[in-house]
Amino acid sequence: MDSGRLLFDSPSTSSSRSGLILLGSAKSDFQGFQGLRSAVAGSTEASGAFKIRPFFTSKYEIYEGFPSEKKRRLTSEQIRMLERSFEEENKLEPERKSELAKKLGLQPRQVAVWFQNRRARWKNKQVERDLDLLKASYDALLIDHDALIKDNEHLRSQVNLLLEKLQEIEKGASEPSRLNPADQAASSTDDLLMPLSIHQKVEDLLSTGSGGNASAGKPESRLPVEPLLLESGGHHAGIHCEDDMSDKGYNHCRDGVFTGHHHKLLQQQHEAALLIQWLDRVESTLLH
DNA sequence: TCCGTCAAGAAGTGCC
DNA sequence: GGCACTTCTTGACGGA
To answer: Beta carbon of A35 within 7 Å of strand C?
Structure first.
């Protein structure tokens, strides 16, 4: 270790480490002196709270007057004032820069660099926060998605059950002697005939389970196209499309494969619920 | 106590 | 002049 080392008191640094600043390491005695000069100059004007330790040697005086400066830690007082200024406005106009530099005993360039780095740190923190939000949003969507799949399976089994019942009823109804005239009249109404579009949906639901794509090109469905949130069975755990970062180029809710699939599941669930309602109506009309 | 490692911050560089 | 990226310095910390 070199013999020339300067320590001066600095209340603390922004990184909560010791307030000591060491200058003049073995590998950079020469540069160390530059740092000493700037450090002393800065601290003198900023807080005046520094002292040169006894073991500081006159070795550095050889280099006195050398123009360049070594980087050094800012004092806690300087950082406190810079932070306060940053909170007011994170951009720095030339006037404010000069004023701050004068007040803190720093070069205007140092103040500009500090603001530059501070903005970068703030942005990094912001990206971390955004990432956390995105993860939470994804987890909620995943839970909702799983719940929808379970609901869909349940509804499809109900549709199967009701279709079996319907087939039994239709068998019975084909025997004329077992129906009274009123029932025959009722069974002949359009209301009890399965609409072609719904029939197609049933086939889709039961064969592919993929949400009715097979009906493309078939007669237009009476079922609503937009995804509807069913009052029963849907969990829909708070998926929001808050574009609160649009000015930064982020969007939490970009359309993608996953959300597209989710959309289909919702639609499929709604169609199945309509089908069950219709089958219930047919069943009750035929039986009672 | 020394040494290596690491994180944080000050400053340099190049691009727009 | 701002920004992204990089380099360099500092100081803390743990292990030998």
So the answer is: yes
| 8 Å CB contact between A72 and A42 | yes
Enter the pTM of the model: 0.49
Stronger pLDDT, A287 or A275, i.e. the higher one:
A275
Question: Residue A148's pLDDT band (boundaries 50, 70, 90)?
Answer: very high
Specify whether the backbone of A226 is left (phi greater than 0), alpha (psi in -120 to 50) or beta.
beta
Helix (H, G, I), strand (E, B) or coil at A39: helix
Question: Residue A21: phi, psi to the nearest 5?
Answer: -115, 125
With beta carbons less than 8 A apart as the criterion, state whether A30 and A69 touch: no
For chain C, which bases have at least one atom within 7 A of a protein Cβ?
Answer: 1-5, 8-12
* Whether A23 CB is under 7 Å from strand C: yes
Sorted by sequence, the CB contacts under 8 Å of residue A40 that are 6+ apart come out as: A8, A50, A52
DSSP secondary structure, A246-288, as one string: GGGT--TT---HHHHHHHHHHHHHHHHHHHHHHHHHHHHHHH-
User: Are the C-beta atoms of A220 and A197 separated by less than 8 Å?
Assistant: yes
Is-contact A115 A83, C-beta < 8 A?
no
Q: Give me the CA A16–C1' B3 separation in Å, rounded.
A: 23
